[in-house]
Design brief:
Blueprint (H helix, E strand, L loop, with lengths): L6 H16 L3 H15 L10 H15 L7 E6 L10 H10 L6 E7 L1 H6 L7 H22 L3 E6 L1
Parallel strand pairs: 1-2, 2-3
Helix pairs in contact: 1-2, 4-6
C-alpha cells in the first residue's frame, strides 16, 4: 500500500484515538498493541467492508476494548471509492449521520480521504497536504453544522 503514512502509523493513530475514548489501563494497552501487531502483519485485510460493515466492526472493537463504557453510535463516510467533492459533502455527511438516528453520542468516521489526497508521490507535495488539510477542516465544519445538539467525534483516516 502506498499511503502517505505507513499502515502501522495510521493504525497507531486509531489506537491512540480509541485509547482516549475508552481509557488507558495497562491491560488495555497490551490488548490493543497485540491486535495492532496482527493487523500490521496482515497485508490481505478484507477491503470489502462497506460503511455498515465498518461501523459494525468499530462498534465491536469499542465494545471489546471497554465493555463497561457505552458505545457511541457510529456513522461512516466512505471515500475509498468516491472522490471527495466539497459540493456533495454536506449531502453525504447528512446521509451518513442519518444512519445513527437520534443518538446523542456519535463517532463519525471518515475513511479513504488520506489515501485519496496523500498516497504515492502526493505525500511529498505541500500542495496536496494543504488540500487534504482543507478537506479535513471542511468536513469538521460541515459535520458540526449538522450535528445539532449531539456530541460528535470526527475521525478522518
Amino acid at each position: 500500500m502506498t499511503a502517505a503514512l505507513p499502515r502501522s502509523v495510521r493504525l497507531r493513530t486509531l489506537n491512540s484515538l480509541m485509547a482516549t475514548m475508552v481509557g488507558t489501563a495497562p491491560q488495555l494497552r497490551r490488548d490493543v498493541d497485540a491486535v495492532l501487531r496482527v493487523f500490521e502483519n496482515d497485508d490481505d485485510t478484507d477491503p470489502g467492508l462497506g460503511p455498515e460493515g465498518l461501523a459494525a466492526a468499530a462498534a465491536q472493537m469499542l465494545q471489546l476494548l471497554a465493555p463497561q463504557q457505552p458505545v457511541p453510535a457510529i456513522a461512516v463516510l466512505d471515500h475509498r471509492d468516491l472522490p471527495f467533492d466539497a459540493l456533495w459533502a454536506p449531502e453525504r455527511i447528512a446521509d451518513a449521520l442519518a444512519t445513527t438516528g437520534e443518538a446523542v453520542d456519535v463517532l463519525f468516521w471518515v475513511v479513504g480521504l488520506q489515501d485519496q489526497y496523500l498516497s504515492g508521490p502526493r505525500a511529498r507535495s505541500a500542495k496536496w497536504r494543504q488540500a487534504y488539510d482543507e478537506a479535513v477542516e471542511g468536513l469538521h465544519a460541515m459535520a458540526a453544522r449538522q450535528a445539532g445538539r449531539r456530541r460528535l467525534t470526527v475521525v478522518v483516516l
